[in-house]
Amino acid sequence: MLRNEYTKEKRVGEGTYAVVYLGTKQSNNRKIAIKEIKTSGFKDGLDMSAIREVKYLQEMNHVNVIELVDVFMAQNNLNLVLEFLPADLEMIIKDQSILFTPADIKSWLLMTLRGVHHCHRNFILHRDLKPNNLLLGPDGQLKLADFGLARNLGSPQDLLTSNVVTRWYRAPELLFGARHYTGAIDMWSVGVIFAELMLRIPYLPGKDDVDQIDVTFRALGTPTDKDWPEISTFSAYNKIQFYPPPSRDELRKRFIAATENALYLMSGMLSLNPHKRWDSIKALTSQYFVELPEPTTPEELPKLGGK
Amino acid sequence: MDDDEKKDMCPICKTDRYLSPDMKFLVNPECYHKICESCVDRIFSLGPAQCPYEGCDKILRKNKFKTQVFDDVGVEKEVDIRKRVSNVFNKTMDDFDGDLAAYNKYLEEVEDIIYNLNNGVDVAKTEEKLRTYEDLNKQLIMSNMKRNRQDLENFEQQQKFEKEMRLKKRQLERQIEEEEVANREWARREIVNQLSKAEDAEDVVASVKKTVKLKKSSARRKLEDLNKVLKNNPFMMVSNGMLKKKESVPFTPFNGDRDLQKRYVLSETAYHDPFINDLQNKREFIASGFRADFVYDRMLTEAFMGLGCMVIDELQTAQLNGIH
Amino acid sequence: MTNTPTPSGSVDATKVQPIQRVSDDDLYRHSSQYRMWSFTPEQLAQKRVEINARAATVLETRVRSFLEQNPDLGSDEVAAITEKAVPVTADEEVLLVNYFARMLLTFATKMNLPTEVAATAVTFFRRFYLNNSVMDIVPKEIFYTTLFFACKSENFFIGIDSFAKKTKSKNEDVLKYEFRLLESLQFTLMNHHPFKALHGFFLDIQNILQGKVDLNYMGQVYTNCKKTIMEAILTDVVYFYSPPQITLAALLKEDEALAMRYLDLKFANEDSPGVLHLETLRTVIVACKDTMSANAVPSKEQATRTVAKIHFGQNPLSVVERMRRQRESASPP
């Protein structure tokens, strides 16, 4: 039976709706992680996050998306067997003992964008991209994980909830409560992550939802109806502070080690107007990835606890 | 008239450079006879003509004339031949996988060709050899040319990157200097200020010094970052001559797995879709980033996604192969 | 679209092994719908026979032990049980599932649920019975569960209280088999329904047959095809054909001339990218259309009879009770 196929060896984390264990797949001794989803105490039956996670991960098959190895039921609990990924990008960014180069940043960004491209070509929005959802395998491969907020791009008229994505990585249209957004919201998150990789500190750390709007526009300028048609439709727009957009030179000074192509790509992904924001194809085919330095090969990327 | 004087005189029209300083000499790689620019214009404007040198029967074309770079016509000729041959025989050490012996043998062969052409030995046969090689290796030659261009580009990029970094470094250093001057000024005034309120002099000086120390400027921090980057600069390896061995796999943004063979072309004008039209004119849709072209692209993708999957056949084949 | 940059000599960051180009067809082949829920007609038939046989054995064993535990039954009663408390056949199962699947669709439509949600509910319901027999869990017990779960899966969340109220059912009844449902669906929830493909063809036809089709007429074709596709979801074509093929079959049914003209023009040029062999495609679509039309739906009486049969099989005692009641009413005191 399945349930004897996997052992749970160590409890490594507990979230609101799941407990995560490290374990081993008996038949081939592969290290795995088991996400045991709590099922009691949910009035409405199976939790939506669990449903989404199962639903989308089953369809994904890409080096840069976490692999769902198996799913099984045990003691009336839902267990997701996932590939074992020992670190995440947030840990790497925060570990001051790790030094990383522009080539490393390029490699992580490349893998992130490939994962996002795969989601988007399957018409799936991730809706919670942030450094701690970008997991790193023992071989250095970066994988998109945590699809608890993901959803299909449904019918065009669908109303989407704007209450998605962790605050610091939330696109401006979401901050305004947009209900008909696109894959552009994921691209914004990637842009913010790119900035964070270069700065080694969060780029737009708003203290609360209102502050997030302020922090975002202080850094990138307040858009007008001209930059972003119909922005004044959002009721929150009319209450905000006006900031001028940063000059190229200001950006250069802030991102001191970035090349012009890197800044160009970052600004593309951080276009305030979602219509103008770069999609994953445009980002992946940008000059930044072609110019030197070449992206570091995954095996050679910095790892936790020194190389 | 001695040789030195001859050098500055056109042997055809006898104009002397001494008298007309703007005069320019040109040669044609067919025979390398030196002729002044105005003679070339005069003689060859109407089409190919024979070389005006006595006893030279080469037919020359105007567009083949070029400025002579080297004083010695012999050197000029050899350089031209070298250039021509190495454009065709353009392999580098990389193409021999580190086999030094093979690479040396190749270089010798190339030298032989150049020697023969330069000294008129077996010219017809050697030219034939050159042509044959060119025909057989067109693909390789083209890709090597591209690589050499790329190497040059990389080199230029590296130069640009380093220049940018140096510039930024200088800016930061200047900024730090300015800040330090300002800090010193501030400390001086602060000490005077606080002392006027009659506090203990030593304490005041110590505390002000401490504050200044804490004011580690952001510019300084950035400078440290920049130094780190420079220390790890991947270009440095190139400049140290330790060029990483390049693998032959070209960079592919999508890891090679994007489908470029779509079964449809997204039209910009052909679709009349009242439903989508209606949505794309709604203000809240526009503001949210809603895009009709995204919707069309999506629907068209779904229309053809799996059209070529002959499910029953494929499953039967899989069954026969014992996969299913 | 964006230009691909000229390849430089650089090393690919994530080069593990050469990865094959993934076509859109391959994307579909990666989907769980293709991997887990596509069958050949023989495989499907066999699956149904097996499910039925397994449940039948269980039922027969149960009836036998009932008879052993009740040796005091009269011989006519034993005869009635042996006659009535019998398993339903595989064919009866299919018909009953079809009957309830249609009811589910009608119900979802009455509830004003979006097309995709209704289609998913029907799909889940039918897939459930590819791993369970109607003799294990009767359709009524899983009916609302499927609908409720489909809503959640399609991001159309309705709280359990308001759902139970709308369906006049009890919370615990709706939720009782939710896990069993998820497990029976083999934990795969993504559906590629043909509705988006239909929208896509509606657009592409306008492009390929530019100026040659009347837009009002196209709108009408679209509406009718949508209805045909909804019907198709109730049939086995969903297991044998891909969504675009089902869509084209619907179009073929609606306007054969239009469908053929479109395909001829579309795939006439053998050199165009991703070209398909027109004849193969045509054969597949025609076969799909024929299977679509051949679907059998049982009458209400037929369905009621099967439900009763399951009931007797599950409770042999009820056969006896029914006999005794009939006998009592036949001979008044």
UniProtKB/TrEMBL annotation, chain A:
Enzyme type, top EC level: transferase
GO biological process per UniProt: cell division; positive regulation of transcription elongation by RNA polymerase II
Protein name as it appears in the record: [RNA-polymerase]-subunit kinase
Family: Belongs to the protein kinase superfamily. CMGC Ser/Thr protein kinase family. CDC2/CDKX subfamily.
GO MF: ATP binding; cyclin-dependent protein serine/threonine kinase activity; RNA polymerase II CTD heptapeptide repeat kinase activity
Keywords assigned by UniProt, alphabetized: ATP-binding, Cell cycle, Cell division, Kinase, Nucleotide-binding, Nucleus, Phosphoprotein, Serine/threonine-protein kinase, Transferase
Binding site for ATP: 12-20, 35
Record organism: Lachancea mirantina
From TrEMBL, chain B:
Coiled coil location: 123-229
Pfam family of the protein (one): MAT1
GO molecular function, one term: zinc ion binding
Domain RING-type, residue spans: 10-52
Domain of life: Eukaryota
GO biological process, one term: nucleotide-excision repair
Role, per record: Acts as component of the general transcription and DNA repair factor IIH (TFIIH or factor B), which is essential for both basal and activated transcription, and is involved in nucleotide excision repair (NER) of damaged DNA.
Name of the protein in its database record: RNA polymerase II transcription factor B subunit 3
Source organism (scientific name): Lachancea mirantina
Upper taxonomic lineage: Eukaryota, Fungi, Dikarya, Ascomycota, Saccharomycotina
TrEMBL record, chain C:
Any one biological process term the GO annotation gives: DNA-templated transcription
Cyclin-like domain: residues covered: 102-183
Listed SUPFAM superfamilies: Cyclin-like
GO terms assigned for molecular function: cyclin-dependent protein serine/threonine kinase regulator activity
CDD domains registered for this protein in UniProt: CYCLIN_CCNH_rpt1, CYCLIN_CCNH_rpt2
Gene3D superfamilies: Cyclin-like
Keyword entries, A-Z: Cyclin
Pfam families in the cross-refs: Cyclin_C_2, Cyclin_N
Family: Belongs to the cyclin family. Cyclin C subfamily.
Protein name as catalogued: LAMI_0A07162g1_1
Organism: Lachancea mirantina
